[in-house]
Specification:
- By secondary structure, the protein is an all-alpha fold.
- It is 78% helix and 0% strand.
- The protein has helices at residues 2-31, 38-54, 60-84, 92-113, 118-149, 159-181, 188-208, 218-241, 247-273, 283-305, 310-336.
- It has eleven helices and no strands.
- The longest helix has 32 residues, at 118-149.
Length: 346
């Protein structure tokens, strides 16, 4: 079905690819050791592409196999430098990558076998994992970026709050997994309460990062605003568990607002930094940031205001999303396909 293909490709095609790219870059910096490049990187990309092609054919099981091989290749690509550099603090990313691969393959196997129950379960677990990864990475970099860029910003991390923020997301993943595995698993009430609790904890976490003090720097505020969409998603997911809000709209607060916005923000920042350019957003970047935020607003809230325009909201949101990433591509292709402006390798 088209909805299953859409869920699989956006979660395990697009978002997983972005995470893989981030980890290959980050692990190299964390360990001072190489991650896949050249032919090895081409092989990883080929596995990813093979899964994208096969999912359009009747050979769904083959697509699932390539999904797993891609996840395995990414896991090995980050595990080797981390183990060699004794970077134990980040070993858990290996497990998260493996779980993402399993969730993606499970979705496809369910679709191939005609099991209507597996696809939404695998999608939910995949989104739980991606939300957790966003929360981990954002917690490390957003306060640091804020304090580095804004004099006297005062962005702070409280260890107890940080642990609680990640713990509640891990608990949400566990509850979703148990609800799948056990016939008498946790009820929707438990999920709803946990999601609302998570929303409150993450709202407090974000407030400690002083988001309002970044309003003059688009390359910084995009990260704060995108993280706010994670809070919105958790709040709306909690409301959806009590039948107060449509669940699919809560999902798109995460997928478009948090995932789309955060990846655009991090990609523009990384592309500028790793090409020797100043960490300042130009007009094209600002336009892309605004377009992705509008895409999220239209997809999540327009159907509530104008229920009869649901189809229009989908089309408009898709156009806004596509325009944001088209702008990114046009702006950064020349930057990423040429040598660094400062003459350094990379």
């Amino acid at each position: 079905a088209g909805s299953v293909w859409h869920a699989h490709e956006m979660i395990f095609g697009y978002a997983f690819a972005v995470i893989a790219g981030f980890l290959f870059t980050a692990v190299r910096n964390w360990t001072n050791r190489p991650t896949p490049s050249g032919g090895a990187l081409a092989l990883v990309c080929a596995l990813w592409l093979a899964a994208r092609v096969c999912v359009l054919t009747p050979w769904i099981e083959l697509a699932a196999a390539f999904d797993l091989l891609f996840a395995l290749a990414v896991a090995i690509g980050i595990a080797r430098p981390m183990i060699a550099g004794a970077n134990r603090r980040n070993y858990f990313f290996i497990g998260l990558v493996a779980l993402l691969g399993l969730a993606g393959a499970t979705l496809l196997i369910g679709a191939g076998s005609g099991s209507s129950a597996l696809a939404p379960v695998a999608s939910t677990l995949g989104l739980d994992l991606i939300g957790l990864i966003i929360a981990i990475i954002a917690g490390r970099v957003v306060p640091m970026f804020t304090n580095n860029a804004v004099l006297g910003a005062g962005a702070t991390r409280i260890e107890a709050l940080e642990r609680s923020a990640l713990g509640v997301l891990i608990s949400l993943f566990a509850v979703d997994a148990l609800a799948t595995l056990l016939p008498a698993g946790p009820s929707a009430l438990v999920t709803g309460v946990l999601a609302l609790l998570a929303a409150g904890v993450h709202a407090l976490r974000l407030a400690r990062w002083r988001p309002l003090r970044t309003r003059a720097l688009p390359i910084l505020w995009i990260l704060h605003v995108s993280y706010a969409w994670l809070v919105i998603h958790l709040a709306l997911r909690g409301a959806a568990a009590f039948d107060l809000f449509p669940a699919n709209l809560a999902t798109h607060a995460l997928t478009i607002g948090a995932i789309g916005g955060m990846t655009l923000g991090m990609m523009t920042r990384t592309a500028r930094g790793h090409s020797g350019r100043p960490l300042l957003a130009g007009r094209a970047e600002l336009a892309a940031y605004l377009l992705i935020q509008l895409a999220a607003l239209v997809r999540v809230f327009l159907p509530l205001v104008l229920p009869g325009a649901y189809g229009t909201s989908l089309t408009l949101s898709a156009l806004l999303w596509s325009s944001a990433f088209a702008l990114f591509t046009v702006r950064f292709w020349p930057i990423l396909s040429r040598p660094r402006v400062d003459g350094r390798p990379g």
